[in-house]
Design brief:
969 residues; alpha+beta; ten-stranded mixed β-sheet; three-stranded antiparallel β-sheet; 29 strands; 17% strand; globular; RNR_lg_C
Length: 969
């Protein structure tokens, strides 16, 4: 551990500084010198034309870093113009840029007892980073040590008052934050409702009307070139008179999206017409009170209060309002709930102000106009060879990381002065972790089990306890946070609440008992040191999504999430990818006592089926250990809630996580999730029901219920358009010999072939579709359909008319395709006519229909224009090549042999893997792999950067292909 000793400060005379013990790194040896480094080529190419989109050759990484990790770090975090001498080319440069900035600031501000301690701190921090034990959040890697503003925070909370000046300032501040790629949240409850009067005598607009302007601003900045969509959270108190309008905003817009989609408009995520609807750039949450929740339980009335006077101006049925909130969440996943009294009961600074809002992912909850910088530990790194958790080593890592995070506030820049002032005065930190799901599986513990929850609770308690212990030690060195004095009693009360929660944890096995013992000692030290020194930080911990940085650490699971699926994709040196079974599964099976032969048989079964049901030799009581977020044995909704409840009492902030429900879930089930979350002490809950959003692939458009869900009338009459014949039709027949194009395709697992023939001038004249075996009903129907379309084309029906009528037609099979230009299709007809449009219509004609190639979509992201340019490519795909990766004695590229059961790293060591299926350019993400195994589509959006399917990470989504996230990083 570390201790404090006296040293001479630069401006305060005699003072104490930290004495750093060398635990991770080796005395006398630099951390870099302990590793084997290798050079790799990172090349991003257009798979269709071969045009290079991104290229940096000879980048340097430790040999144990995966191709995926090095690719994402190179493309996301290396600074300097590509192709110039100023461009970073080694992980050493990146880590040095950040760590040396932290150490220099620590020396300047008196954190270390001696320069030797500062050097030990530098080596310890460097060792932890290069060995992937933890990572700072993305803004640190983007900005620290560069000429750019030294912004270290990803999470911001803004404030808006009931005045036009404040509202317009909200738009401005949000815009600057979005411009920097970060997200912000705020509470609009101070704004008068549309049922209240202005001082001039008119009626107020209400907060929902001002949300329109903010949403448009966020959408504009997003489309103006940001690398990810603007992330924002909008909160409204449940007693606001406009609460019903707020609750219904996104639900009504979802109905509008359905209507526009059915009329032929492109309403997919990132589609050409999606900007015509409102409120799509924010997560919405209702801030509920204990008073309201008790009224829901009792079935009594609840008062909605005027903003200026506080008087009740309307009384509503609490249960009916609660049901309306749940109905909206069922329909479109918004709003979530934030539990106001629980949040403020754990608030360390109530004398300064209440907590009214959160960041977009809902894990950071603190004062208005504040920010939080995050860092996350890779829990699996602390699992020892005997499958026990190394609690002392974990505690020492937490001490070092918290120290670094606090130092960063000394030099950090902030987007607005109020945010900077609040952050410097309260110094909120957000340490957290990733890989919990993988850790529990490797230890043989089910995610939804008492043992799994006990382990997670004790680790979280130890993390936060050690963080506040170090915060109290820092207070002795550099002083408590500026707002501590006025909040001292409240802060110490919350520390006692954390300690009391730790005391009631009941451990179930030796490993969690050892962790709990150390956590108990940490909380005792917190009370003693905090009473003496105060605390350096108002907040210490959150559980964030850990999207991009999770890939940087080669984590199997993000944040507090369970494993997404039992099979994953792995990028290969030299390009392409292969599907493998999670490497934690063999370790878990060994922990459970299975022999080598049984483990191999079970792993091969999982590789083929994607789940453990009926796996040979696997005991049914062990099934729960391998439950995942998706798939045949997916976790029940309350399994997610109970895990969050186990960890919540040991966090300063909250948890970024979405409770996933199946498409068949009812409104009553959502009500129960929200109600139980409140009873179990969560600070916030968000839900997502499969396929509740338009643009997702699982709706069955043929059923009456699906039509109702999509806002369509079951008995709607067919509107016929009468066409007056002006000229007698003339059939333009094709020549006996004509140019044709045959395309093989897959839509939602259904395979087929399309042959299209053209006239001499290139105009499409016939289409033939091959689906099903000859003589089958499907084959006969498709033959008849092909003839009908072909005759129509020859009689002069424009192809664009067919395209406008048949695209967006929804029926099964639907889902992912193997066509890089059309990654998602709502039906076979939707795919066929989009493909024909791309093959035979001009750019201008397709633009009118909102149909673009992957090349054109990529160009729009980079330049803001779909217009074709010379020497540009289409859909970009990452291709990673090692510098001269050859097998000894053969001259062959080792990892280009896609059908080989072995892969080799670049220094010759063999790593045996059991592939589930070998692919080159098909199964590119875990989400897509799970779709291929289960035969059903995964309900998540496509990445707006590279077009591959994303997967959930907390309440956001993360792309495994390029590291982009849909919200906070």
């Amino acid at each position: 551990m570390t201790e404090t000793v006296s040293s001479t400060g630069t401006a305060r005379g005699r003072r104490k500084g930290l004495k750093i013990e060398q635990t991770f790194s080796t005395p006398g040896v630099h951390p870099y010198d302990e590793l084997t480094w290798e050079r790799r080529d990172v090349v991003q190419t257009n798979w269709k034309t071969g045009a290079t989109v991104f290229e940096q050759r000879g980048v340097e990484y430790p040999d144990f870093w995966s191709v995926n990790a090095s690719t994402i770090v190179t493309t996301k975090y290396f600074r300097g113009a590509v192709g110039t001498d100023s461009r970073e080319w080694s992980l050493k440069q990146l880590v040095d840029r950040v760590v040396k900035t932290y150490v220099a600031a620590g020396l300047e501000h008196g954190y270390f007892a001696t320069e030797k301690d500062a050097q030990v701190f530098e080596h310890e921090l460097t060792w932890l980073l290069v060995h992937q034990y933890f990572s700072f959040n993305s803004p640190v890697w983007f900005n620290v040590g560069t000429p750019s503003p030294q912004q270290v925070s990803a999470c911001f909370i803004l404030s808006v008052d009931d005045s036009m000046d404040s509202i317009l300032n909200w738009y401005k501040e949000e815009g600057f934050i979005f411009k920097g790629g970060s997200g912000a949240g705020l509470n609009l409850s101070r704004i008068r409702s549309s049922k209240e009067l202005l001082s001039s005598g008119g009626t107020a607009s209400g907060p929902v009307s001002f949300m329109r302007g903010a949403d448009a601003s966020a959408g504009t900045i997003k489309s103006g070139g940001a690398t990810r969509r603007a992330a924002k959270m909008v909160v409204l108190d449940v007693d606001h008179p406009d609460i019903v309008e707020f609750v219904e905003t996104k639900m009504k817009e979802e109905d509008k999206i359905r209507a526009l989609r059915d009329a032929g408009f492109d309403m997919d995520l990132g589609g050409n017409d999606i900007t015509s609807v409102q409120y799509q750039n924010a997560n919405n949450s209702v801030r509920v009170s204990d008073e309201f929740m008790r009224a829901v339980e009792d079935g009594t009335g609840f008062g909605l209060r005027a903003r200026d006077t506080g008087e009740v101006i309307e009384t509503v049925d609490a249960r009916a309002l609660f049901t309306k909130i749940s109905e909206a969440a069922w329909a479109c996943a918004d709003p979530g709930l934030q539990y106001d009294d629980t949040i403020n009961d754990w608030h360390t600074n109530p004398e300064t102000g209440r907590i009214t809002a959160s960041n977009p992912c809902s894990e950071y909850m603190s004062l208005d106009n504040s920010s939080c910088n995050l860092a996350s530990l890779n829990l699996l790194k602390f699992l020892k060879d005997d499958d026990t958790f190394d609690a002392p080593l974990f505690a020492q890592a937490v001490e070092l990381i918290i120290t670094a995070m606090d130092i960063s506030i000394c030099f950090a820049d902030f987007p607005t002065e109020p945010i900077g002032e609040t952050t410097r005065n309260y110094r909120q930190l957000g340490i957290g972790y990733a890989n919990l799901g993988a850790l529990l599986m490797a230890m043989g513990l089910g995610y939804d089990s008492d043992g799994g929850r006990s382990m997670a609770a004790t680790i979280t308690s130890l993390m936060t306890g050690v963080s506040y212990k170090r915060s109290a030690e820092l207070a002795a060195v550099v002083g408590p946070y500026a707002g501590y004095a006025r909040n001292a009693d409240a802060h110490k009360r919350v520390m006692r609440k954390h300690q009391a929660a730790n005391d009631v944890v009941r451990t179930l096995h030796g490993t969690d008992a050892a962790v709990h013992k150390l956590a108990t000692q940490a909380w005792a030290d917190v009370q003693k040191l905090g009473e003496k020194n105060g605390f350096r930080n108002a907040q210490a911990s959150v559980l964030a999504p850990t999207g991009t940085i999770g890939f940087m650490m080669d984590c199997d699971t993000t944040g507090i999430e369970p494993d997404f699926s039992l099979v994953k994709f792995k990028k290969l040196v030299g390009g392409g990818s292969m599907q493998i079974v999670n490497q934690t599964i063999p370790r878990a099976l060994k922990k459970l006592g299975y022999q080598t032969e049984s483990i191999e048989a079970i792993v091969e079964f999982i590789a083929d089926k994607g789940h453990v049901i009926d796996a040979p030799g696997l005991k049914t009581e062990h099934y729960e250990i391998f439950d995942t977020a998706m798939g045949a044995r997916s976790l029940k909704p309350m399994g997610h809630v109970r895990m969050m409840a186990a960890c919540q009492p040991f966090l300063s902030g909250a948890i970024s996580k979405t409770v996933n429900l199946p498409e068949s879930a009812t409104v009553e089930e959502i009500e129960d999730v929200y109600l139980q979350s409140w009873k179990l002490g969560l600070k916030a809950t968000a839900i997502y029901r499969d396929n509740c959003k338009v643009g997702q692939p699982l709706s069955d458009g043929k059923s009456d219920q699906a039509k109702k869900d999509q806002g369509q009338s079951v008995d709607a009459p067919v509107v016929e358009t009468k066409v007056v014949e002006v000229h007698k039709p003339f059939r333009k027949r094709l020549p006996k010999s004509r140019a044709s194009l045959t395309t093989s395709f897959t839509v939602g697992g259904a395979e087929g072939y399309m042959t299209s023939g053209a006239h001499a001038d290139g105009e499409l004249g016939e289409v033939f579709l091959k689906l099903g075996k000859q003589g089958s009903t499907l084959a006969g129907v498709m033959d008849a359909f092909s003839i009908a379309v072909s005759i129509g084309l020859q009689y002069g029906v424009p192809l664009e008319t067919y395209v406008s009528k048949f695209t967006n037609l929804r029926f099964e099979p639907s889902g992912m395709t193997d066509d890089p230009d059309i990654r998602m299709s709502q039906s076979l007809m939707d795919y066929v006519f989009r493909r024909l449009a791309l093959d035979y219509l001009s750019f201008e004609e397709r633009s009118m229909l909102g149909i673009y190639s992957a090349e054109e979509r990529q160009r729009h992201l980079e330049t803001g224009s779909y217009e074709p340019l010379e020497e540009t490519g289409g859909a970009a795909e990452l291709k990673i090549a090692e510098a001269a990766p050859q097998e000894k004695g053969t001259g062959k590229d080792v990892d280009n042999r896609a059908d080989d059961l072995e892969t080799k790293d670049t220094h010759g060591a063999e790593a045996r893997e059991v592939p589930a299926k070998v692919t080159s350019h098909e199964a590119r993400t875990s989400a897509e792999l799970l779709e291929k195994i289960t035969g059903s589509a995964i309900d998540s959006p496509l990445c707006m950067t590279c077009g591959t399917k994303m997967r959930p990470a907390g309440s956001c989504y993360v792309c495994e292909g390029c590291g982009s996230t849909s919200g906070c990083s």
